[in-house]
């Protein structure tokens, strides 16, 4: 039988609860029209005319109000059509993918699938979002054709932000369906795909819940508190801030108890999912975590301030324990992750005993589950990283410690090694991942298959690194494209980063490359300029050096547009200040959908000095009708740029960045952050053949004194009303001078880009010399928060 072309252009979600509505929102974020259905509520005699679509509508309203936001742009909610399972079931015939997210009851799911099979088109992919009910049980009694098109799709909450999507084929799933759906999940929805086996708990929940249960046991054994355990198992270990018990509160203690009990019943005796008496006692009292207002932690408000109280497991009371500090964590603060993990694992004392015991449980169980929950070690690692926010998965962490060291520690505890670790002991291998090799669940060497194009794999071939500095590298991406990669802390922009961009341009010209990509795969694209350096130079009165530095910065940012070859930039995460200014000047932007971009310099008493002020004025002026680009008609463009920069607006997504004006209509938005380098490379190759070097603009219309007077009038009103501070007024006036095109001009004039850049630099240095700005920078460096002076 010939395979169907399984292309998903329209979807349907059945069940408009928390997960169903949020999944529908993510589909809409990706531009996929979606039908959202739920049941019809029983008639309410007091209602004048019952709304049969009430639950689906309520789901969308809940998603629109969700924090963090479920929609990247609220307008995307318009892609969701609502309905109900009685009146609108027939509409499923138009869906290419149908997903259920209803109650976790096997009978309810089977009943639903019987109805769906009667109306779904023959090429539709069918999926369940169940977190625990085996997929093969749901489709018993369905036709062979239905079973062939069925595949589990387990999202993690919230679907927009958690990268993991577990895809669970059954024995009957057509490989073509699995391939097509996995590609859709990764490319269109932006998810990290893990192929899970159809076993209890799948991958992340099976191992994650085991870790929570065992952590509870070790906590009571060592006498630690939940807050101390969270200090040990959070960022100190390279894991999410929610760590163990805050994660439990977020997930729901009742849910964890149910999942643990179900897993305990479905797994062998040596997989100990036994909940402690304290945990069960909490749940029996109706304390379920955030959903009931209290769990291991409880939020209270005193004097308008939120306070976190901690549950005392001995007394059952909530206490203000202040800022909890753990000696083992404090002793290893500031060390790199690998060094920190090794030091804590090898330490002595009850904190280390807890940590080593909990980590060893995780190592032992992950090794035991290899080949059971999934057939690749990297899928297990990725499930924990993408589903729970870990920096390293269990096998990667064992590599950090040394696999043989872990084996010795497990044996010292009297444990029987799982077959994978027994094989590693026999072979003497000390790493699961070694260059381009990894091992199978059976412990045999096999080539490592990267799930997508990532720089860590690229760097395995050292010959591809053309040049390297501590803060930046120049990397050959192949096919005639060079990459400038920044790799400093938060990718703060300093000499290494600027020089590597300049070196990249030079290399393209001298070595015959097609063009340049600016990108990296750090936690954030760039948090902006190197503030400590700027402040120290200002305080040392090194004004000539600072003037040269700002000139160099402007020349480097604008070089992205005016080079003889195409430059494409790939921003993601925090793209602030100077990072945003680089982005604004590229020929093309390939942005991650999760883009937090803004010109935020006013927060430290400055204005954008790397061309950002100039660029926003130019863009907004160009967007006016040609007849409006003269006289007072220019004022809306000036005001728009002034408001954007003066209020330090930051996008909460790439879609919002486009609405704000940071991205242009032709720029690309990629749902999957891990694909942006690859897409940027493709774009360079597309632009290169017919690329014509642009020249700086000489014809930018400005209003001069008229614009500045209008801006000052608004500013003084805001100041009198208490909306802005004294120093906000000082900074805003300097911003107004640049956006007006300079003072002393009472009629419309046309100026060059260089003229605006010179005004920017002058305003930037003027502000940097003021005490108010230096106070703001110092306060930001010390507290991470802006100073309102």
Please render the helix and strand layout as text.
Elements: E1 11-14, H1 18-29, E2 34-38, H2 54-65, E3 80-84, E4 97-100, H3 106-119, E5 125-128, H4 135-138, H5 144-148, E6 151-155, E7 164-169, H6 175-188, E8 192-195, H7 204-222, H8 226-232, H9 245-251, H10 253-266, H11 277-284, E9 297-302, E10 305-311, E11 318-319, H12 327-331, H13 337-346, H14 350-369, H15 377-388, H16 394-401, H17 403-412, H18 419-427, E12 437-439, E13 445-447, H19 455-458, E14 465-469, E15 472-478, E16 481-486, H20 495-511, E17 515-518, H21 531-539, H22 543-562, E18 567-569, E19 573-576, H23 578-585, E20 588-592, E21 595-598, H24 612-622, H25 635-646, H26 654-660, E22 668-670, H27 676-687, E23 700-702, H28 705-720, H29 726-739, E24 749-751, H30 753-768, H31 771-783
Parallel strand pairs: 1-2, 1-4, 2-3, 4-5, 7-8, 16-17, 17-18, 18-20, 19-21, 20-22
Antiparallel strand pairs: 6-7, 9-10, 10-11, 12-13, 14-15, 15-16, 23-24
């Amino acid at each position: 039988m010939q395979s169907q072309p399984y292309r998903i252009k329209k979807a349907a979600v059945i069940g408009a609860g928390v997960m169903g509505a949020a999944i529908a929102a993510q589909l809409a974020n990706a531009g996929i029209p979606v039908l959202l259905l739920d049941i019809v509520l029983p008639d309410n005699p007091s209602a004048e005319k019952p709304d049969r679509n009430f639950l689906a509508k309520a789901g969308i309203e809940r998603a629109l109000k969700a924090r963090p936001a479920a929609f990247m742009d609220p307008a995307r909610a318009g892609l969701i059509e609502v309905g109900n399972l009685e009146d609108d079931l027939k509409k499923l015939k138009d869906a290419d993918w149908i997903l259920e997210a209803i109650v976790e009851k096997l009978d309810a799911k089977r009943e639903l699938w019987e109805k769906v099979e009667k109306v779904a088109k023959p090429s539709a992919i069918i999926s369940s979002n169940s977190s625990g009910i085996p997929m093969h049980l749901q489709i018993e009694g369905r036709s062979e054709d239905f079973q062939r098109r069925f595949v589990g799709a387990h999202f993690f909450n919230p679907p927009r932000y958690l990268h993991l999507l577990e895809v669970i084929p059954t024995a009957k799933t057509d490989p073509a369906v699995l391939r097509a759906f996995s590609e859709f999940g990764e490319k269109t929805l932006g998810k990290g795909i893990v192929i899970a086996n159809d076993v209890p708990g799948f991958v992340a929940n099976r191992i994650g819940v085991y870790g929570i249960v065992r952590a509870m046991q070790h906590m009571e054994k060592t006498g630690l508190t939940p807050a101390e355990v969270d200090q040990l198992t959070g960022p100190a270990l390279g894991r999410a801030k929610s760590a163990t018990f805050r994660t439990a509160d977020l997930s729901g203690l009742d849910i964890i108890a149910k999942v643990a009990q179900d897993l305990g019943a479905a797994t062998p005796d040596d997989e100990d999912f036994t909940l402690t008496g304290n945990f069960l006692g909490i749940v029996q009292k109706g304390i379920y975590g955030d959903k009931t207002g209290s769990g291991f932690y409880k939020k209270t408000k005193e004097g308008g301030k939120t306070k976190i109280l901690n549950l005392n497991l001995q007394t059952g009371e909530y206490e203000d324990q202040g800022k909890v500090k753990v000696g083992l964590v404090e002793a290893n603060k500031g060390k790199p992750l690998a060094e920190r993990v090794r030091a804590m694992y090898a330490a002595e004392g009850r904190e280390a005993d807890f940590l080593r015991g909990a980590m060893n449980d995780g190592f032992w169980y992950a090794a035991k589950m290899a080949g059971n929950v999934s057939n690749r070690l990297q899928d297990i690692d990725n499930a924990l990283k993408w589903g729970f926010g870990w920096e390293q998965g269990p096998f990667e962490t064992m590599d950090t410690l040394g696999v043989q060291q872990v084996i010795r520690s497990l044996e010292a505890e009297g444990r029987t090694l799982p077959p994978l670790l027994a094989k590693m002991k026999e072979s003497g291998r000390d790493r699961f991942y070694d260059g381009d090799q990894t091992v199978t669940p059976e412990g045999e060497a096999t080539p490592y298959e990267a799930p997508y194009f990532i720089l860590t794999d690229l760097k395995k071939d050292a010959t591809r690194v053309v040049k390297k500095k501590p803060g930046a590298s120049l990397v050959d991406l192949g096919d005639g494209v060079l990459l400038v990669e920044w790799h400093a802390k938060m990718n703060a922009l300093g000499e290494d980063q600027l020089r590597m961009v300049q070196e990249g341009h030079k290399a393209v010209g001298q070595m015959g490359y097609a063009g340049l990509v600016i990108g990296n795969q750090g936690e954030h694209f760039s948090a902006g300029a190197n503030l400590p350096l700027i402040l120290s130079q200002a305080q040392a009165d090194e004004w000539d050096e600072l003037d040269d530095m700002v000139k160099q910065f402007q020349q480097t940012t604008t070089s992205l547009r005016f080079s003889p070859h195409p430059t494409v930039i790939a921003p993601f995460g925090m793209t602030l200040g100077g990072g945003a200014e680089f982005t604004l000047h590229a020929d093309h932007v390939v942005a991650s959908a999760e883009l937090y971009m803004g010109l935020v310099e006013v927060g430290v008493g400055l204005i954008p000095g790397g061309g950002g002020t100039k660029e926003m004025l130019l863009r907004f002026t160009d967007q006016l009708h040609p007849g409006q680009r003269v006289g007072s008609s220019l004022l809306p463009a000036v005001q728009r740029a002034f408001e954007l920069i003066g209020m330090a607006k930051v996008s909460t997504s790439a879609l919002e960045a486009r609405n704000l004006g940071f991205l242009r209509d032709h720029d690309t938005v990629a749902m999957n952050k891990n694909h942006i380098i690859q897409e940027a490379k493709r774009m360079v190759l597309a632009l290169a053949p017919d690329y014509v070097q642009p020249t700086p603009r000489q014809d930018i219309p400005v209003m001069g004194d008229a614009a500045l007077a209008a801006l000052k009038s608004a500013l003084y009103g805001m100041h009198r009303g208490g909306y802005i501070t004294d120093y906000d007024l000082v900074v805003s006036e300097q911003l107004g001078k640049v956006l007006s095109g300079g003072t002393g001009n009472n009629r419309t004039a046309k100026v060059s880009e260089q003229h605006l850049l010179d005004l920017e630099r002058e305003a930037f240095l003027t502000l940097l010399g003021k005490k108010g700005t230096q106070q703001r920078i110092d306060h930001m460096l010390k507290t991470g928060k802006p100073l309102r002076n």
